[in-house]
Amino acid sequence: MRLAPVLALIASPALADVPCGGDFPAWVQAMKAESAAQGIPPETADAFFAGLTPDPRVLKADRSQGVFRKSFLDFSQSLISKDRLTRGRALSDQWDSVFQRAESEYGIPRGILLAFWAFETDYGVVQGDFETRRALATLAHDCRRPDLFQPQVFAALEMHRLGEFDLNTMGAWAGEIGMVQMLPGDILARGVDGDGDGLVTLKTSVPDALLSGAKMLHYHGWQPGQPWLQEVILPDTFDWELTGLETELPAEQWAAMGVQLRAGVVPNGLPASILLPQGRNGPAFLAYPNFRTLFEWNKSFVYVTTAAYFATRLMGADPYRAGNPDPALSAEEMKVLQGKLAALGHDVGAIDGILGAATRIAVQKEQARLGLPADAWPTRDLLDRL
Question: Which residues sit opposite 272 in a β-bridge?
Answer without folding.
Answer: 249
